[in-house]
Amino acid sequence: MNIMVNGNPQDFKGTPTLGQLLKELDIVPERVAVMVNDRIIPKAGRSEFGLNEGDRIEVLTFIGGG
Amino acid sequence: MPGMLPSNLDPTPWLPLTESATSTDVSRALHATQPGEAEFATLLAPAAGAQLEALAIRASELTRRHFGQTLTLYIPLYLSDYCSGGCVYCGFAADRPQSRRRLERDEMMREMDAIKAMGFEEVLLLTGERTPQADLDYLRDAVGEAARRFSAVTIEAFPMAAEEYRMLADAGAIGVTIYQETYEPVQYEQMHRWGPKRDYENRLGAPARVLEGGMRTVGMGTLLGLSDPRFDSLCLYRHAMQLRRRYWQSGVSLSFPRVCPQEGGYSPPFPVDDRTLAQIIFAFRICMPDVPLVLSTREAPGFRDGMAGVGINKMSIASRTTVGGYQVPAESPDGQFHVNDDRDIETFCAMLKGKGLEPVFKNWDKVYR
Amino acid sequence: MKKFILGGKEFESRLIMGTGKFSSVEVMLEAIKASGAELVTVALRRFNRERPSDDLLGPLARLGITLVPNTSGARNAAEAVRAAQLGRELSGSPFVKVEIHPNPHHLMPDPIETYEACRELAKDGFIVLPYMPADPVLAKRLEDVGCAAVMPLGSAIGTGHGLSTAEMVKLIIADSGIPVIVDAGLRAPSEAAAAMEMGCSAVLVNSAIAAAGNPSAMAAAFAAAVKAGYAAREAGLMSRCDHAVATSPLTSFLTGA
Questions:
Q1: pLDDT for res C1
Q2: Do A7 and C46 count as a contact with CB atoms less than 8 A apart?
Q3: Rounded Cα distance, B293 and B62, in Å
Q4: What residues contact residue C178 under an 8 Å CB cut-off, 6+ apart?
């Protein structure tokens, strides 16, 4: 299944949930904010959140800023 | 039960300064870049009274900076002396024996035409407390008539709801004057023996409702003589500052009516002498440099001439405090208060010109309304 | 020093620190500790697998400070609102620094988009801290829509031109019913002290610390300056003009003068 992650197309086996996808990318779920198709998915809802072909995912972290 | 002075107006933390401030404190307060309650209280202290000339110099600098060499003139028009109030100090109190009247529409129009012919462009319309004879509808009609003639119409009547103020603003009024008389709740209760004006809190909330209702300016003040003038002035300062912050697109102006001790009938419990009144006005000017400060014809010519441009930047002149009285003199000469400055406009303007001050009749046009 | 109350929460420190432009996370953490700051700003960016060390959430969380996510990168109100929501989701903090500066050359804040974003975010329960031009009217408009403070710029971001907007900041302070925090442009601790003497409730400093020769020493210097400036303000500054008065030409009309 093809999904856009931070602007890059990536292939995933089967139909992963958002939680599974983050795990596959080695991302600590508590350290990121996630949007799927411009919708914010809270930490609690990610493990059951089903993904579809062509979904656009943004994974964001805090960096230094003024 | 007396009303309650809300904590946001309570002057208690600063009151001691009005006694204890030193001459060094006064020098500092005089030139503070951002004066606040402490500076204001300091300028009310005896130590500041001992440096009255320094206060006057600073006040006159600031008056000139913000208002230039001008003095704005307005005139009051009493529409009605019906009143439901029992204010012990007032010539219109409901228990005074005089006959009552109000201007009917044709009289109103003639009075306004007479005032206009004198050259005035700002008129203050007055009534007493709310009565069937002088209620909101009556006032609204009067505002409508005045707005057709004058560039600035303001009102001094009874406390209203914000929606009522909005109706008057829509009818053409740009400002409302409403004095708290005194912020001291116990004294307030004793002064207002009966009637709707006994409601201290309702009156206290009126200036905010004026601005909520869309008026451009609210005129505030205390009736000096009713209570400790330092207490009342600090409350007034706090009240005015807070309204300015909250209704920042509107203006506040302050007046300094004083119960003149020499008047027959009523002796105020806290008489305020000329030096003290001047000191209070200077303190307001120094701490609120851009706020219009107003002095009426309650004051005598000598005092008014001395204060013109030195703190005060707006005055009434040629005033009658009877109902009407401009077109034809009133039958009874007794008005709401005694006019101590009975000069005509020409004499008064000549005095201003002699002091290098330009009389301003029209400051404002409602072109965009 | 009186507690600094912002958005209903109490703080000891009146120095807010930004976390950008440091040479390393370690240097930044040392500087924050030296500054005593309890509020620090952070930015949101796409997760980068190649640079996992960029992630500041863990290290900052261990310091026990309050995070203020900013909306940098947003070019309009809608993007800023989205950034703020993401920041809140990630930090759990209700604070947000709204910054919308669409012009990359000078990074001046867009007053119109900033106003719109603040209105939305305040309605949504955020503690909104807008980075804004030093404009007294805009400051009141932002207060009216529910901002917890206003943060006028001292000078353009990162320029180190100090308090070039001093006269405007004074006008903002005189009328403001909410804390005024000078944000951006400060270079030297003396400028932070001057802002506090003027009546600011706090200052926000980033580049001046991050780009200093010794960031943590500079952070401590800023902390001392902010304290000194605040204490001076509380103590009451001497007046500048203090001329003597000889005669009584203005008050001779008063009886007994």
A1: 77
A2: yes
A3: 12
A4: C143, C147, C148, C149, C150
Of A15-24, C82-91, C229-238, which one has max mean pLDDT? C82-91
Half-sphere exposure of A4 (CA within 13 A, CB side): 12
Q: Is B31 exposed, middle or buried (0-12, 13-18, 19+ CB in 10 A)?
A: middle
CB of A47 within 8 Å of a chain C CB? The answer is no
Which residues numbered 6-45 in A keep a CB inside 8 Å of some CB on C?
A: 6-7, 25-27, 30-33, 35, 38, 40, 42-43
Which chain C positions have a beta carbon within 8 Å of B52's beta carbon? Answer: 248, 251, 254, 257
The residue ranking higher by pLDDT, B259 or B160, is B160
Say whether B32 and C239 touch across the interface (CB within 8 A): yes
Query: If we measure between CA atoms, which residue out of B90, B157, B70, B124 comes closest to residue B319?
Result: B124
pLDDT score at A61 = 92
- Contact: C255, B275; criterion CB under 8 Å: yes
Distance from CA of C188 to the nearest CA of A (A): 17
Amino acid at B153: V
With CB atoms and an 8 Å threshold, state whether B303 touches C240: no
CA C78/CA C90 separation, integer angstroms:
19
What is d(CA B137, CA B140) in angstroms, rounded to the nearest whole number?
5
Please state the rounded mean pLDDT for residues C118-147: 97
Test the B interface: residue of C135, C143, C180, C251 with most B CBs within 10 Å:
C251
Interface touch A65/C72, C-beta < 8 Å: yes
Count of Cβ atoms closer than 10 Å to residue B212 Cβ: 17
Rounded Cα distance, B178 and B209, in Å: 11
pTM (2 decimals)? 0.84
C-alpha to C-alpha distance for B126 and B190, rounded to whole angstroms:
24
Q: Is the pLDDT confidence value at B280 over 90?
A: yes
Q: What is the pLDDT of residue C257?
A: 42
pLDDT in tens, B327-367: 877 666 667 788 889 999 999 999 999 999 999 998 766 66
Compute CA B107 distance to the chain's CA centroid, rounded to the nearest angstrom: 26
Closest CA relative to residue C89, chosen from B260, A31, A53: A31
Contact present, A51 and A37 (Cβ < 8 Å): no
Cβ atoms of B364 and B314 closer than 8 Å: no
Of all helices (H) and strands (E), which one includes residue B26?
helix B23-30
Cβ-nearest to C86 among A7, A35, A66: A35
Spatial distance between the Cα atoms of C253 and C257, rounded to a whole number of angstroms:
7
C63-110 confidence digits (pLDDT tens): 889 999 999 999 999 999 999 999 999 999 999 999 999 888 888 999
CB C228 within 8 A of CB C211: no
